[in-house]
Design brief:
It is a single chain. This protein has about 300 residues and is mainly alpha-helical. The chain has 2 domains: about 1-35 and about 260-295; about 80-255, f41 fragment of flagellin, N-terminal domain (Up-down Bundle). About 70% of the residues lie in helices and about 5% in strands. It contains 8 helices and 4 strands. Strands 1-2 form a two-stranded antiparallel sheet. Strands 3-4 form a two-stranded antiparallel sheet. Helix 1 (about 1-30) runs antiparallel to helix 7 (about 265-285) and helix 2 packs antiparallel against helix 3. The N and C termini lie close together (about 10 Å).
């Protein structure tokens, strides 16, 4: 009888433990809204969920990189707008020194304005974003140009703008080549041109003023062309963000289908688990009341 009782007791204990686990799983599904709380519940579903989480993490990383690139390029676009405006102002100042004879005071005033514009352009091209220079190519810790006291330095960056990955096989430049913008194929940067032009305006050298105006015109074209490239990149980033958002929505939907519980089914399962658990407890309680005569029968 002891052997029969021990066997029945062990089976009853296992039934209670199993019913308790089923009840705990059902309660967890209803309370959390998640179908899978541990990998053993659905190994294949867990593997698929891991894949989808990896996809979403990658999309989040691309989205973050895209946002950083957008911030940098929006700032670069603003700077280039000012560069274009400053060059236009320099053209106006230089033209004002031509034509009818000007007094020395008028020429000096125009020359000082050109030097002020040069300093403004120097500040523009040395713009930083989060401690890195936007117009130094890949040499983001080096100022593109510097005022040495005796003049403006040569371009100190390089001609290899850095890029940021914003999608699978997709990247966008996050820095610009300040040397290309301010100098291009000319023998001088527009900063040096303005220094030379200021001296020409002050002395009334019409030939040198015309030469300077030609150089300013080329600088204007380079700046507007660079701004157009930045604008195209910004539009591309907007499209990229929209695509990333759409792909993430799809991944989120797939992940929800894998991980999220059907509340109606989960509630029904909970009710069944509660019934099974009570039944297991009842069976165990009945076992304790079995007498010798029950076994003899």
């Amino acid at each position: 009888m002891r052997i029969l009782f021990n066997t029945a007791f062990d089976e009853g204990s296992r039934s209670i433990a199993q019913a308790a686990q089923e009840l705990a799983d059902a309660q967890a599904q209803v309370s959390s809204g998640r179908r899978i709380s541990r990998p053993s519940q659905d190994p294949l579903g867990t593997a698929s969920a891991i894949t989808e989480h990896a996809v979403m993490d990658r999309l989040d990383a691309y989205s973050s990189s895209s946002s950083v690139a957008s911030y940098r390029l929006n700032l670069a676009d603003s700077v280039l707008s000012d560069v274009v405006n400053q060059i236009s102002a320099a053209q106006t100042a230089a033209l004002s020194a031509q034509g009818a004879p000007k007094t020395q005071a008028q020429r000096d005033a125009a020359a000082n304005e050109l030097l002020a514009i040069r300093d403004a352009l120097l500040s523009d091209v040395n713009t930083q974003f989060q401690g890195t220079y936007l117009f130094s190519g890949s040499k983001v810790t080096t100022a593109p140009f510097a005022n040495t006291g005796s003049g403006i330095s040569a371009y100190q960056g390089d001609h290899s703008p850095t890029s940021i990955d914003v999608g699978s096989g997709r990247s966008v430049s996050s820095t610009l080549d300040g040397g290309q913008i301010l100098q291009g194929s000319d023998s001088q940067s527009v900063l040096d041109v303005l220094t030379t032009l200021a001296a020409a305006v002050s002395s009334g050298d019409s030939t040198a003023i015309s030469t300077g105006l030609d150089a300013l015109s080329r600088a204007f074209d380079r700046a507007t062309a660079s701004q157009a490239v930045v604008g195209n990149n910004l539009r591309s980033l907007d499209d990229n963000q929209a695509q990333l958002s759409a792909v993430k929505t799809q991944a989120t939907s797939r992940l929800s289908n894998i991980e999220d519980a059907d509340i109606v089914q989960a509630s029904a399962r909970l009710a069944q688990a509660e019934t099974a658990y009570r039944a297991a407890l009842g069976a165990m309680a009945t076992l304790g009341r079995i007498s010798l005569m029950d076994y003899l029968k």
